[in-house]
Structures are given as C-alpha cells and as structure tokens.
Design goal:
Elements (H helix, E strand, L loop, with lengths): L1 E4 L2 E5 L4 E6 L11 H16 L6 E6 L10 H4 L7 H19 L5 E5 L3 E2 L1 H7 L3 E5 L6 E2 L13 H9 L1 H9 L7 H7 L4 E3 L5 H11 L23 H4 L4 H10 L5 H13 L4 H16 L2 H18 L15 E5 L3 H12 L3 E5 L3 H20 L5 H9 L1 E4 L10 E4 L5 H11 L8 E4 L6 H5 L8 E6 L8 E6 L5 H13 L3 E6 L6 H17 L4 H11 L5 H8 L2 H16 L6 H16 L12 E3 L5 E4 L3 H4 L9 H21 L6 H12 L8 H7 L3 H16 L7 H6 L1
Parallel strand pairs: 3-4, 4-5, 5-7, 6-8, 7-9, 10-11, 10-13, 11-12, 13-14, 14-15, 16-17
Antiparallel strand pairs: 1-2, 2-3, 15-16, 18-19
Length: 719
C-alpha cells in the first residue's frame, strides 16, 4: 500500500513495517521546508493513530541525497522580527521527531546518500542508523560553518549519544563531514552495508529481530550521559578545557555559533531531554536571526555554490581535462602544483634547470605520500600510482605531448619569458600556457609567447596541497576557451576557482597588501606590536599581520611594493604616501636590522634553528617607539577590515572583479579574510547600518587616519 502526504510517501508491507520515503516532488533534494514540516507532523500523527497495525518504521529517501537539511533560502531571510515564528517552526519539527522516537516501535534510518545537518538530525531520532558505504555518502552536522547550530535536536541527541566531550570535539564544534566508516567509528551510526539496495532489507531485518528496539538510550531507566554530566566528577577534569579549546579555535573573534553550541550542550545536559530541546531552540533562533549567520550562509553556501556551478566560467565552451601537464619550476610552488595535479590522476612533467632540482621537487610529493601512508590515509598501490605520474626532467624536449603548461618560476618578467620560449614550440600546438604569478600583469607576461590567446594567469596559494583557492587571471588577449580550460582543471584538482581580470597584483595580492600595510603603519605610529597581532586575531584573521609578513618573507612584500611603485609611476600615476611609508618600514627592518622573515631565521619574531617561531623580536619596540601611541582595539581592527574592503570596491570599479561571489570566496579562501564577515564584499553589506553605516564609519576612519579610508564614489552612490 502506497500513499503520499506532500513530501513523504507511506509504504506498508505485509509484515506491518511502514517505510516512509522522503521525496519532495517540487525539489531535486529534500529540505526542511514548510511542506516537509507539515508532512512530518501529519505522518507521525498517522503512525500514532495506526500504531496497533505497525511493527516498525523505516525512513528512506527517493533522492540521491538522503536529506539536504534546512531550507537556507528561507533561513537567510529571517530577522529578529521572525524569532517567534521560527521558534514555533523549530519546536514543531522537534516535537514530530520526539513523537517518532517515542512511538514505541523500532524506527530505522536507511541512509542512501549524504545526510548533513537536518538530514542527519532526522536520522538521530531513529533507534538505528544503517548507511550505504558508497561514494558520495557524507554524514555530519556542519551548521557551525554557516554560523548556526544544529537546531532540530542535533546538539541534544549527539551529547546524549556520544557524551559532551566527544559530541563537541568530534561532531559539533568543527562540523566535519564524515565518511560512513568514520561515522560508525565515532558511534554516530550503527551498521554499514555495501550498496543502497541492501538498506531497506537490512532495516526490516533488524526491526523483525528487535521488536522491542523502539526505545532510545536516553529514554531507558538509569540512563547516564557517556563521560558524565556537567555535575559529575568524571566530567570535571575535562570541563576547564572547553573554553580553552574555544579560545584556541576562534581567538576571540565575533563568531557566536561555537559559543552557542558549547552553551546549548552544557546547559542541555543538566536538564531532561524535552527541556534540553527548548534550550537548543533558543540558541538556534538567536543565531539564525543574527547577521553573522547571514554572512556565512551567503558565502559558504550560496556564493560557493555559484562558483562551483561555473558562474564565472565562459558559457558554451566544451568541458575539458588536460591529459599531460608540464610544470616549469620545481620549487615549493611547482612541487605542490605537480602533487595536486598527479593526485587528480593527470600525468605531470616537472621541469627545472637541473635534474637534481626536479627530483627534489618530486621528493615533496614523496614526503606527503609517506605521511599519508603512515596515517592510513592511502594505500601503497595508490601512492605508487600517484608518484609514477610525476616525471622529473631538465630537458625541454620532455614537454612533447603536454597540453597544459603551468609556469612557477621566480617573479621576474624576463625569466618567465625565457622559460616559455624554451617550450612553446615543443608542447601541443593548442596547449594552454599558464603562469603562476601573484603580482605580474598577465598581459605583459603574454608578450613573451606566440599565442597570447592561450596565455592565462593561474595563481596558486602556498602550500598548494592545503590551500583551497586558485585565482584565474584573464589577460587582455586571453580567449574564452583558455579560461574555460583552466576553470575545468581547477575543479578537477578539487580547488575552488575565482576569475579576475588583469591588473598589477590582481585581486588577492592587491587586497592582502592593504592589510599588511595597515599593520606596518600602525607599528610606525607607535602602537604596541602585541596589540596589532591581537587586533588581527580577534578580528578573525587566521594569523596576526606581523606573523603573516614573516611567513611571506619580508623581502617579498618589499620587492613587490618597489615594483608596484615603479609600474605606477611609469604609467603616469602617483604612489600613495602611506605606501611610501610602508616601503620605508620594511627597508628599515630588512636593510638596517637584517630581519628578513621566518626563512632567514629573524623577522618581527625570533626563530630557533629549526624555524620554530618564538616571541616577538625584543628590538621591535625600540625600532618603532612602541607604546608611544594607544589606539582603540576596534579602530585597529577596522583599519584592517576597511582597508581590504575599500580596495575591493576599487577592484570592482576598475573591472578587475566582476563577481561578488568571486570577491567573497577569494578573500576568505585565498587571503584569510575573517570567515564571520561572509567575505570582503559581504562585510560591507552586513556592516551595522548596511552600506550607509559602512560609509559613515569609513569617513570617521579617514578623518582620524588618512584619506586612504575615504569611500569611493561608487560606494557613496550605493549608500
């Protein structure tokens, strides 16, 4: 017997087992929208009414994804005025799931595809979770990455299932996406089967074997939370580590979700299940109606979806994947590019001036693979196959058959021209010619090759194997076909592509330069270096700006600044007074004090012989009269954030940027702009008072710290 209630299909077999098939007819994926909430309530009501004829319940899905979670199109629109309605809707979902788990009949979730967020929360209300261990299945509660917490019982049930410590550290605070085996190891699911077809039969078999299995652990007499409740001595040893871990994770940045998750978990563990659900709802609603969740949902769901769906890819160009990639330069960048390319199953020729240098570049991949093997992350067979795809070489002739070139040599126009001229007649006649440059204009670099339409910028970030972004730079003569090819390659190596137009520094290097410049200017004004670093960390940047400069090596930003100055002045422009000052500060450090950064063992920080960072250099305070000025922490923080945001507006004005998603994701993934802002463009939109509020504050900063904070005309028009 099959019947349908909006989004849930009811199928009952001769043994009395009801299979509830989640299948929203209006969407390609099931979501927790209004139709589902109503369907769930009606379906649970029917189960209660007909429970005498029911022996058990299986929850299955007709979609490729088991259940996609909350409807973010609705959620991103809620405001504090909607708090009452959202509270009622959230409690309604919880009420239905609570009634389902207390039906008195065994309920089994048969999970055929990804169950993330609300999808996993539905399954947590079942008494058993069986998962198909097949490609593409992921389980987890990643709401924290959207500035939210699991609001459909996820906090309450994982705490009672796994214990406070395990739930927080392994599921809730980092929001990892787990494969089926890992989810089973953690205790989130009970059983794995090898195919989706085995799910429902396995679920029914368990129901028949466990007719009394319809009681959750937390509803059984004498139940205790694993690892202890907040009031038990066994938990007391762990309790002080919770705020310490939280501080380590967010550095005091304005990210309310991790704090709310901890609070909901601890407070909810001190009351009964039903009151714990109410506590969870209150924290969920406070987050959902706040600005940070809007910012993060916009960036990490909608903007990322737009990019990965090819929003910045030229339409109509055929999809392609390179067969053989030639990497010019086997230094750290070239070695990393070779590794991620080979990992994607593509053949690589890694060329350097000598075979020894090329082999050293391949050794980078060997080291990564050895580590992965020792941790059980790969197999010997897979590792051997990956490494066999990388051929070290010193001979340009080995580029025969290459259909995709990535140059990763030193930042010099002459050198880049030279290495392309060596191989341009050896590679395939239509091979893509890509340059991994962070600042040099692509149009100028393209002058060194015969086929300028096939020349493009491919800016990777270091270390390549860890950093998720690739900035694709279109030169004046770059064709749509070339842009489409590099976009497809970037997705093939599992990176996120953003597309920008040519200019000196492009988007990411140009914008991050304003962040580090502002830190140097504050230092020169006499602000304590520790205050500068704390302002960065407490803003949500991954590292303080002085530490970042050390990591980059101080000679690099100095070289880039001098080249930028020369380029601007050669084209008739003028270099800003604050940028001149920045050059002076770096020159003082590098040339007068021989502090060149981490790689040289001495920068803003001291380093031991192994390169481990110690404390701030004792001479920095004397060199810059530190402590002679004391600025409000908020001013230092907003100087960083506004400098980057205003430079981004200029990038839009000049046509370097054409896409808001590219700006937001590029700033977060590429240059560490704080995630809570939703990215560098969303920071302006989400600022208190909107664009008008941002403009008013920019004018305040300009009056106090200089005309570089004056908002551009385009921003004034929008305000």
């Amino acid at each position: 017997m099959t019947e349908f209630t909006n989004t849930i299909r009811w199928e009952q077999d001769g043994d009395g087992i009801v299979t509830l098939v989640l299948d929203d007819p209006n969407q390609s994926a099931n979501t927790m929208n209004k139709d589902f909430i109503e369907s769930l309530a009606a379906t649970v009501g029917r189960l209660e009414k007909e429970q005498e004829s029911i022996t058990g319940v299986v929850i299955a899905s007709a979609k490729k994804t088991f259940f996609a979670g909350g409807d973010l199109n609705d959620l991103i629109k809620v405001t504090p005025a909607d708090a009452g309605r959202l509270t009622d809707e959230t409690n309604s979902i919880k009420s239905s799931l609570r009634r389902l788990e207390k039906l008195g009949k065994p309920v089994v979730a048969a999970i055929n595809g990804a169950a993330l967020g609300g999808g996993l929360e539905i399954t947590l209300a079942a008494h058993r979770r069986i998962v198909a261990d097949v490609k593409g299945v992921q389980l987890g509660l990643p709401e924290v990455s959207l500035g939210l917490l699991p609001g459909a019982g996820g906090v309450v049930r994982t705490v009672r299932l796994l214990g406070i410590q395990n739930a927080l550290l392994n599921v809730l605070l980092q929001g990892p996406r787990l494969n089926p085996a890992k989810a089973k190891d953690l205790g989130l699911v009970h059983e794995l089967v090898s195919s989706a077809e085995e799910l429902v039969p396995a679920a029914k078999a368990w129901i028949k074997a466990n007719p009394e299995g319809g009681v959750q652990p937390w509803d059984q007499p004498g139940y205790k939370i694993p690892g202890g409740s907040p009031s038990s001595p066994s938990f007391a040893a762990f309790a002080p580590a919770i705020p310490a871990n939280l501080r380590k994770q967010i550095h005091g940045a304005p990210m309310p979700a991790p704090r709310a998750i901890v609070a909901a978990a601890i407070e909810g563990a001190q009351v009964d299940v039903d009151n714990a659900f109410l506590i969870e709802t209150r924290y969920f609603v406070s987050l959902a109606t706040g600005q940070v969740a809007k910012n993060m949902t916009k960036a990490f769901f909608f903007d990322l979806q737009h990019i990965n769906a090819g929003g910045s890819r030229p339409q109509g160009e055929p999809k392609s994947t390179p067969k053989k990639v030639g990497v010019l330069g086997a230094g750290m960048m070239g070695a990393g590019i070779a590794y991620v390319t080979a990992k994607a199953g593509i053949e690589v020729v890694l060329k350097d001036v000598t075979i020894e240098a090329a082999q050293k570049g391949k050794a980078y991949s060997e080291k990564i693979e050895a580590k992965a093997l020792s941790r059980g992350k790969t197999t010997q067979e897979k590792s051997d196959a990956l490494l066999a795809r990388i051929t070290p070489s010193a001979d340009p002739a080995d580029f025969a058959g290459v259909d995709f070139v990535i140059e990763a040599v030193f930042e010099s126009v002459e050198l880049k021209h030279k290495v392309f001229q060596e191989i341009q007649d050896v590679v395939n006649p239509d091979a893509l010619l890509g340059s991994n440059t962070s600042t040099l204009p692509i149009t100028i670099l393209a002058e060194g090759v015969k086929r300028q339409e096939d020349f493009i910028g491919i800016h990777f970030f270091s270390p390549v194997d860890k950093m998720p972004l690739v900035e694709i730079i279109r030169g004046k003569n770059t064709s749509d076909a070339a842009l489409a090819k590099v976009f497809d390659y970037t997705l093939a190596i599992k990176k996120t592509p953003i597309v920008v137009n040519d200019s000196r520094g492009f988007f990411t290097s140009r914008v991050i330069g304003t962040f580090t410049t502002e830190a140097l200017l504050a230092l020169s004004e006499g602000v304590e270096p520790t205050a500068i670093e704390q302002a960065g960390l407490q803003s949500g940047y991954p590292v303080g700006p002085l530490q970042l400069l050390d990591e980059l090596t101080l000679t690099l930003p100095l070289k880039i600044a001098k080249e930028t100055k020369a380029g601007i002045e050669a084209s008739g422009g003028s270099f800003g007074a604050h940028d001149e000052k920045m050059i002076g500060i770096l020159t003082t450090l590098v040339e007068q004090h021989d502090r060149k950064g981490r790689s040289a063992g001495a920068g803003f920080y001291d380093y031991d012989p192994e390169g481990k960072r110690g404390s701030l250099w004792s001479g920095v305070r004397e060199a810059f009269n530190s402590g002679s000025a004391s600025l409000p922490l908020k001013d230092i923080q907003e100087r960083f954030l506004f400098a980057e945001a205003l430079e981004t507006v200029k990038c839009f004005d000049e046509g370097v940027l054409t896409s808001v998603p590219d700006a937001n994701i590029g700033s977060i993934f590429g240059i560490g702009f704080p995630a809570w802002t939703g990215g560098v463009s969303q920071y302006i939109e989400g600022y208190e008072g909107g664009v008008a509020g941002f403009v008013a504050r920019a004018k305040e900063l300009a009056a106090k710290y200089g005309e570089r904070f004056e908002p551009p005309a385009s921003l004034l028009a929008r305000a």
